[in-house]
Amino acid sequence: MSKKHDAEEAAIRELDKKWSEAATAKNMDRVMEFYATDGSLVWPDQPPAHGHPAIRASWEAIYKAAPDMYLDFRPTRIDIASGGDMASDFGLVHFAPDAKPNDPKNTAKYLVVWKREHGAWKVLYDSWNRNAP
């Protein structure tokens, strides 16, 4: 991997950390800053949400359903496209500060697709699901 791709991977890892912090703080305006204008959520047990208004509505619903929500994204693999304009980000998301990787109630896997929008990395697709049956 090139040094440029190493730097891009590090940037996405930092974005994952800041996104986790914003989501846990329920800072809706900050959470929305991570999404591309044409971004989409593909979350379990919900219809897909396309675009900022629908994404915001999905986040607001999850905050209402889980007022003490905690999120911590832990990327395990980030791949940068050869053109440097898209990336995939796969890892675990923890729903509790003390969650363990094999805890099906408090840990899930995620896949996020990032794209360059006006020079910045933004979430194009946000998807996750649990390991539990």
TrEMBL record:
Residues 12-123 form the DUF4440 domain. This is DUF4440 domain-containing protein. Coiled coil: none annotated. SUPFAM superfamilies: NTF2-like.
